[in-house]
Amino acid sequence: MSDEFDLSGKVAIVTGGSRGLGRAMVEAFAKRGADVVIASRKLDACESLAKQVEAETGRKALAVSCHVGNWNDCDALVERAYDHFGKVDVLVNNAGMSPTYRALTDISEELWDKVLNVNLRGPFRLASAVGTRMVEGDGGSIINVSTVAAVAPSPIEVPYGAAKAGLNNLTISLARAFAPRVRVNCIMPGAFMTDISKAWPEAAIAALANSVPLGRGGEPNEIVGAALYFASDASAYTTGAVLKIDGGMVASPA
Protein backbone atom coordinates (compact mmCIF):
# COMPACT_ATOMS: atom_id res chain seq x y z
CA MET A 1 0.00 0.00 0.00
CA SER A 2 2.84 2.44 0.76
CA ASP A 3 3.94 2.28 -2.90
CA GLU A 4 0.61 3.80 -3.96
CA PHE A 5 1.57 7.00 -2.11
CA ASP A 6 4.93 7.21 -3.85
CA LEU A 7 5.48 10.51 -5.69
CA SER A 8 8.88 9.73 -7.21
CA GLY A 9 9.43 11.56 -10.48
CA LYS A 10 6.52 13.91 -9.94
CA VAL A 11 6.53 17.72 -9.69
CA ALA A 12 4.20 19.51 -7.29
CA ILE A 13 3.33 23.20 -6.98
CA VAL A 14 2.11 24.34 -3.56
CA THR A 15 0.85 27.90 -3.14
CA GLY A 16 1.11 29.33 0.34
CA GLY A 17 3.83 26.73 0.57
CA SER A 18 6.32 28.42 2.86
CA ARG A 19 4.42 28.02 6.13
CA GLY A 20 1.51 26.32 7.87
CA LEU A 21 -0.41 23.61 6.06
CA GLY A 22 1.36 24.41 2.80
CA ARG A 23 4.77 23.85 4.34
CA ALA A 24 3.66 20.52 5.79
CA MET A 25 2.49 19.41 2.34
CA VAL A 26 5.70 20.57 0.65
CA GLU A 27 7.82 18.60 3.10
CA ALA A 28 5.61 15.50 2.78
CA PHE A 29 5.66 15.55 -1.02
CA ALA A 30 9.45 15.89 -1.11
CA LYS A 31 9.90 13.05 1.38
CA ARG A 32 7.77 10.89 -0.91
CA GLY A 33 10.01 11.66 -3.88
CA ALA A 34 8.49 14.72 -5.56
CA ASP A 35 10.30 17.82 -6.71
CA VAL A 36 8.46 20.88 -5.44
CA VAL A 37 7.65 24.44 -6.42
CA ILE A 38 7.19 26.52 -3.28
CA ALA A 39 5.15 29.66 -3.94
CA SER A 40 4.12 32.51 -1.66
CA ARG A 41 4.34 36.29 -1.51
CA LYS A 42 7.52 36.17 0.61
CA LEU A 43 10.35 34.94 -1.60
CA ASP A 44 12.89 34.73 1.23
CA ALA A 45 10.68 32.32 3.16
CA CYS A 46 10.23 30.18 0.04
CA GLU A 47 13.98 30.16 -0.62
CA SER A 48 14.75 29.17 2.96
CA LEU A 49 12.37 26.22 2.83
CA ALA A 50 13.64 25.23 -0.62
CA LYS A 51 17.18 24.97 0.69
CA GLN A 52 16.00 22.92 3.65
CA VAL A 53 13.99 20.55 1.45
CA GLU A 54 16.91 19.97 -0.90
CA ALA A 55 19.31 19.37 1.98
CA GLU A 56 17.01 16.98 3.85
CA THR A 57 15.42 15.04 0.99
CA GLY A 58 17.71 15.40 -2.00
CA ARG A 59 14.76 16.53 -4.11
CA LYS A 60 14.81 19.69 -6.22
CA ALA A 61 12.90 22.71 -4.91
CA LEU A 62 12.09 25.92 -6.77
CA ALA A 63 11.12 29.06 -4.80
CA VAL A 64 8.77 31.48 -6.57
CA SER A 65 7.32 34.75 -5.33
CA CYS A 66 3.63 34.80 -6.24
CA HIS A 67 0.58 36.73 -5.08
CA VAL A 68 -2.19 34.41 -6.22
CA GLY A 69 -4.70 37.26 -6.11
CA ASN A 70 -2.85 38.73 -9.08
CA TRP A 71 -3.75 37.15 -12.42
CA ASN A 72 -0.36 37.91 -13.96
CA ASP A 73 1.47 36.42 -10.96
CA CYS A 74 -0.48 33.20 -11.42
CA ASP A 75 0.50 33.01 -15.08
CA ALA A 76 4.12 33.74 -14.23
CA LEU A 77 4.17 30.98 -11.59
CA VAL A 78 2.92 28.44 -14.12
CA GLU A 79 5.51 29.51 -16.68
CA ARG A 80 8.35 29.33 -14.11
CA ALA A 81 7.32 25.85 -13.02
CA TYR A 82 7.11 24.46 -16.55
CA ASP A 83 10.27 26.21 -17.70
CA HIS A 84 12.21 24.83 -14.73
CA PHE A 85 10.84 21.29 -14.48
CA GLY A 86 9.16 20.74 -17.84
CA LYS A 87 5.95 19.49 -16.29
CA VAL A 88 3.61 19.71 -13.30
CA ASP A 89 1.89 16.61 -11.91
CA VAL A 90 0.29 18.08 -8.79
CA LEU A 91 -1.09 21.56 -8.08
CA VAL A 92 -2.14 22.49 -4.55
CA ASN A 93 -4.17 25.70 -4.29
CA ASN A 94 -3.45 26.31 -0.63
CA ALA A 95 -2.83 30.07 -0.39
CA GLY A 96 -5.61 31.93 1.39
CA MET A 97 -6.46 34.93 3.53
CA SER A 98 -9.20 35.82 6.01
CA PRO A 99 -8.83 39.35 7.39
CA THR A 100 -10.75 40.27 10.52
CA TYR A 101 -13.31 43.08 10.67
CA ARG A 102 -15.45 44.70 13.36
CA ALA A 103 -18.72 44.88 11.42
CA LEU A 104 -20.02 43.93 8.00
CA THR A 105 -20.23 47.59 7.08
CA ASP A 106 -16.49 47.85 7.68
CA ILE A 107 -15.82 45.45 4.79
CA SER A 108 -14.69 47.70 1.97
CA GLU A 109 -14.91 46.94 -1.72
CA GLU A 110 -11.14 46.64 -1.75
CA LEU A 111 -11.13 44.10 1.11
CA TRP A 112 -13.95 42.08 -0.44
CA ASP A 113 -12.15 41.92 -3.78
CA LYS A 114 -8.83 41.03 -2.14
CA VAL A 115 -10.34 38.08 -0.24
CA LEU A 116 -12.23 36.77 -3.27
CA ASN A 117 -9.20 37.18 -5.52
CA VAL A 118 -6.82 35.24 -3.28
CA ASN A 119 -9.24 32.51 -2.24
CA LEU A 120 -11.18 31.94 -5.45
CA ARG A 121 -9.98 33.84 -8.52
CA GLY A 122 -6.34 32.78 -8.11
CA PRO A 123 -7.11 29.08 -7.69
CA PHE A 124 -9.36 29.25 -10.75
CA ARG A 125 -6.64 30.80 -12.86
CA LEU A 126 -3.93 28.41 -11.70
CA ALA A 127 -6.14 25.34 -12.03
CA SER A 128 -7.31 26.40 -15.49
CA ALA A 129 -3.77 26.97 -16.74
CA VAL A 130 -2.15 23.92 -15.14
CA GLY A 131 -5.13 21.63 -15.66
CA THR A 132 -5.23 22.39 -19.37
CA ARG A 133 -1.54 21.51 -19.70
CA MET A 134 -2.06 18.37 -17.64
CA VAL A 135 -4.83 17.26 -20.00
CA GLU A 136 -2.51 17.77 -22.96
CA GLY A 137 0.29 15.90 -21.17
CA ASP A 138 0.29 12.92 -18.84
CA GLY A 139 -2.61 13.98 -16.62
CA GLY A 140 -2.31 14.98 -12.98
CA SER A 141 -3.98 15.97 -9.75
CA ILE A 142 -5.27 19.35 -8.56
CA ILE A 143 -5.94 19.81 -4.84
CA ASN A 144 -7.86 22.81 -3.57
CA VAL A 145 -7.76 23.76 0.11
CA SER A 146 -11.04 25.11 1.40
CA THR A 147 -12.41 25.56 4.96
CA VAL A 148 -15.35 24.34 7.01
CA ALA A 149 -16.56 27.96 6.97
CA ALA A 150 -17.69 27.15 3.43
CA VAL A 151 -20.40 24.82 4.77
CA ALA A 152 -20.81 26.19 8.31
CA PRO A 153 -21.13 29.95 7.62
CA SER A 154 -19.79 32.27 10.30
CA PRO A 155 -20.57 35.96 10.86
CA ILE A 156 -16.87 36.66 11.40
CA GLU A 157 -15.70 35.05 8.13
CA VAL A 158 -18.27 36.22 5.60
CA PRO A 159 -16.07 37.05 2.58
CA TYR A 160 -13.72 34.15 3.33
CA GLY A 161 -16.50 31.60 3.74
CA ALA A 162 -18.23 32.79 0.57
CA ALA A 163 -15.01 32.51 -1.41
CA LYS A 164 -14.25 29.04 -0.10
CA ALA A 165 -17.81 27.89 -0.79
CA GLY A 166 -17.10 28.96 -4.35
CA LEU A 167 -13.88 26.94 -4.25
CA ASN A 168 -15.83 23.83 -3.21
CA ASN A 169 -18.12 24.39 -6.20
CA LEU A 170 -15.15 25.07 -8.48
CA THR A 171 -13.60 21.78 -7.41
CA ILE A 172 -16.53 19.79 -8.72
CA SER A 173 -16.87 21.88 -11.88
CA LEU A 174 -13.20 21.45 -12.78
CA ALA A 175 -13.26 17.75 -11.92
CA ARG A 176 -15.87 17.34 -14.64
CA ALA A 177 -14.19 19.75 -17.05
CA PHE A 178 -10.81 18.01 -16.87
CA ALA A 179 -11.98 14.39 -16.58
CA PRO A 180 -10.76 11.79 -17.19
CA ARG A 181 -7.14 12.97 -17.51
CA VAL A 182 -6.99 15.18 -14.41
CA ARG A 183 -8.44 14.59 -10.97
CA VAL A 184 -9.60 17.63 -8.98
CA ASN A 185 -10.35 17.29 -5.27
CA CYS A 186 -10.59 19.51 -2.21
CA ILE A 187 -9.39 19.33 1.39
CA MET A 188 -11.72 21.20 3.75
CA PRO A 189 -9.88 21.86 7.04
CA GLY A 190 -11.29 23.00 10.34
CA ALA A 191 -9.22 24.76 13.00
CA PHE A 192 -5.52 23.97 12.60
CA MET A 193 -2.81 25.16 14.97
CA THR A 194 -0.53 26.76 12.41
CA ASP A 195 1.48 29.92 13.03
CA ILE A 196 -1.66 31.93 12.25
CA SER A 197 -3.35 30.43 15.31
CA LYS A 198 -0.87 32.28 17.52
CA ALA A 199 -2.93 35.42 16.90
CA TRP A 200 -6.18 33.79 18.02
CA PRO A 201 -7.65 34.87 21.37
CA GLU A 202 -6.94 32.40 24.15
CA ALA A 203 -10.67 31.99 24.70
CA ALA A 204 -11.12 30.85 21.10
CA ILE A 205 -8.41 28.23 21.44
CA ALA A 206 -9.82 27.02 24.76
CA ALA A 207 -13.28 26.73 23.18
CA LEU A 208 -12.00 24.09 20.78
CA ALA A 209 -12.05 21.59 23.63
CA ASN A 210 -15.85 21.85 23.67
CA SER A 211 -16.65 22.63 20.03
CA VAL A 212 -14.47 19.92 18.47
CA PRO A 213 -15.37 16.30 19.28
CA LEU A 214 -11.68 15.34 19.23
CA GLY A 215 -11.13 18.10 21.80
CA ARG A 216 -8.48 20.19 20.06
CA GLY A 217 -7.32 21.91 16.91
CA GLY A 218 -5.40 19.98 14.29
CA GLU A 219 -1.64 19.99 13.85
CA PRO A 220 -0.17 20.80 10.39
CA ASN A 221 1.21 17.29 9.93
CA GLU A 222 -2.33 15.93 10.26
CA ILE A 223 -3.24 17.35 6.85
CA VAL A 224 -0.50 15.30 5.19
CA GLY A 225 -2.40 12.02 4.83
CA ALA A 226 -5.18 13.65 2.80
CA ALA A 227 -2.70 15.59 0.66
CA LEU A 228 -0.68 12.47 -0.16
CA TYR A 229 -3.86 10.54 -0.94
CA PHE A 230 -5.13 13.11 -3.42
CA ALA A 231 -1.68 13.73 -4.94
CA SER A 232 -0.85 10.07 -5.51
CA ASP A 233 -2.19 7.06 -7.36
CA ALA A 234 -3.91 5.98 -4.15
CA SER A 235 -6.79 8.24 -5.20
CA ALA A 236 -6.85 7.10 -8.84
CA TYR A 237 -10.66 6.68 -8.72
CA THR A 238 -11.39 9.82 -6.70
CA THR A 239 -12.32 13.15 -8.27
CA GLY A 240 -14.73 15.93 -7.38
CA ALA A 241 -14.44 15.01 -3.69
CA VAL A 242 -14.47 17.48 -0.80
CA LEU A 243 -12.84 15.89 2.25
CA LYS A 244 -13.60 17.47 5.62
CA ILE A 245 -10.73 17.32 8.13
CA ASP A 246 -11.89 19.14 11.24
CA GLY A 247 -11.85 16.77 14.20
CA GLY A 248 -15.61 16.39 13.79
CA MET A 249 -16.36 20.08 14.43
CA VAL A 250 -18.89 20.35 11.59
CA ALA A 251 -21.53 17.67 11.71
CA SER A 252 -22.13 17.49 7.97
CA PRO A 253 -20.21 18.80 4.96
CA ALA A 254 -23.45 19.87 3.27
What are the key terms here?
254 residues; Rossmann fold; 15% strand; alpha/beta; single chain
What is the distance, rounded to the nearest whole angstrom, between the alpha carbons of the first and last residues? 31 Å
H/E element sequence: EHEHEHEHEHEHHE
Largest sheet strand order: 3-2-1-4-5-6-7
The total of helices stands at 7
| Unreliable stretches covering 5 or more consecutive residues | none
How many separate structural domains? 1
β content, as a range?
5-15%
In round numbers, the mean pLDDT is 93
Helix and strand topology:
Elements: E1 11-15, H1 20-31, E2 35-40, H2 43-57, E3 61-65, H3 71-85, E4 90-93, H4 109-136, E5 140-145, H5 158-178, E6 182-189, H6 202-211, H7 224-231, E7 242-245
Parallel strand pairs: 1-2, 1-4, 2-3, 4-5, 5-6, 6-7
Helix pairs in contact: 1-2, 3-4, 4-5
Structure description:
This protein has 254 residues and is of the alpha/beta class. The chain has a single domain (2-238), classed as Rossmann fold (3-Layer(aba) Sandwich), CATH 3.40.50. It contains seven helices and seven strands; from the N terminus they run E-H-E-H-E-H-E-H-E-H-E-H-H-E. A seven-stranded parallel beta sheet has the order 3-2-1-4-5-6-7, sandwiched between helices. It starts with 10 loop residues before the first strand and ends in a 9-residue tail after the last strand.
